[in-house]
Design a protein that fits this description.
single chain; YihY/virulence factor BrkB family protein; membrane; 378 residues; two-stranded antiparallel ribbon; Virul_fac_BrkB; transmembrane
Length: 378
């Protein structure tokens, strides 16, 4: 074995090992993995479990208040009421007993007494207090992702924020319902008026999905800003809204199929079916909270802007200011390492090429010597 070959292969392996090490460091320092690190450092899984736990005690109160108010507003419009129930079923599959499907709550049981009595007032206050429990868990968890103080000194302002958050979620359901009905009616009229072919009907569900995407993104922004009181740079607002909307859209599709599968497998046994729907709903709320908090953690790790009023979680690399601009030191270190990676790769390639050239020369020399020996032998 030639000396050049012994030099070139170790050099190549060393350069590849260095490249893999730098590449793995680049991946670990990427924004998504740093977001997941922030999520775990802030006890994100535990917070998601807390949100799911409080949601189980808050869902009935929130649905009772919201459904009672919407039934008074919508009145006798059966189409909108049915669409409202379908929208709630899309947001929380398996919760309502509608369209012949198993569920935990019958819609008729969600309406409070029409008369203003002491009993109805007390029931409304109790249900509202229970519904605000979930909003409080979401507010505290969101602020924890941004490493902000969980407890606010002004308790009245905190409760007003929680009440506003509850109103945001309720209005989002109503807006999705009205928008879906409007898009469906307008699409059918447009297709019929212009005698469009049947395949044009795909535009109706596409428009509905697009509207749901926009509303999901808007809900994320409003919950973070109004409920949690966190200000985000514009770039992080758009990224967070888009990621949360994608996550919720995918979760709704998977959740609906999962609930339908669990209900069909447990059909014929009321206790088992109710327990399956209950557990599935608990998991669905937990996954929803996970998506929301992970996106919050992603937005809390900006690369070009610094969050107002936020400081890094202990152990997280803070932003530094260079030329009056916030810069992530991890990104700066990665930028410096790129030149080192490129240099090592070029050195390894050059050594490999030199080794191959030396091998060819040695092979030619060996062949020449072997030929000379053959001639001398003859």
């Amino acid at each position: 074995m030639s000396p050049n070959k012994r030099f070139s292969l170790p050099a190549l392996f060393t350069a590849l090992a260095l490249w893999l090490k730098q590449f793995s460091a680049l991946i670990v320092a990427s924004r998504p993995l740093r977001a997941w690190k922030r999520f775990t450092q802030a006890n994100g899984p535990t917070l998601c479990g807390g949100i799911a736990y409080t949601a189980l005690f808050s869902i009935f109160g929130a649905l009772t208040i919201g459904y009672t108010v919407f039934s008074r507003i919508l009145g006798g419009n059966e189409e909108l009421m049915d669409s409202l129930l379908d929208t709630i079923d899309d947001f929380m599959p398996g919760l309502l007993k509608i369209n012949g499907k198993d569920g935990l709550i019958a819609p008729n049981s969600l309406i409070l007494e029409s008369g203003l009595t002491l009993t109805s007032v007390i029931a409304g206050v109790v249900l509202l207090w229970a519904a605000l429990g979930c909003m409080s868990a979401i507010r505290r968890s969101t602020r924890a992702m941004f490493d902000l103080p969980v407890k606010q000194s002004n308790m009245a302002l905190a409760k007003l924020r929680e009440l506003a958050g509850l109103g945001i979620l309720g209005l989002s359901v109503l807006v999705v319902t009205v928008a879906s009905v409007s898009v469906t009616a307008a699409g059918r009229w447009f297709i019929g008026a212009f005698n469009l072919p049947d395949f044009a009907n795909w535009a109706i569900p596409t428009g509905t999905i697009f509207i749901s995407f926009l509303i999901d993104g808007a809900v994320f922004l409003l919950v973070v800003r109004v409920l949690a009181g966190v200000q985000l740079p514009t770039r992080d607002k758009l990224l967070g809204a888009g990621l949360s909307a994608l996550g919720y859209g995918a979760l709704r599709q998977v959740g609906t199929a999962l609930v339908a599968s669990s209900a069909s497998n447990a059909s014929g046994n009321f206790v088992v079916a109710s327990l399956a729907v209950f557990i599935t709903l608990l998991l669905w709320v937990n996954f929803s909270a996970t998506i929301f908090l992970v996106v919050c953690a992603f937005a809390a790790n900006p690369t070009q802007a610094e969050l107002d009023m936020a400081t890094p979680i202990p152990g997280q690399q803070p932003l530094v200011t260079i030329a009056n601009q916030p810069v992530d030191p991890i990104s700066q270190q990665i930028s410096r390492n790129r030149a080192l990676i490129l240099r090592e790769i070029l050195v390894a390639l050059a050594a490999f090429q030199l080794g191959k050239r030396a091998q060819r020369k040695q092979a030619v020399k060996n062949c020449t010597e072997a030929g000379n020996k053959d001639r001398l032998t003859v």
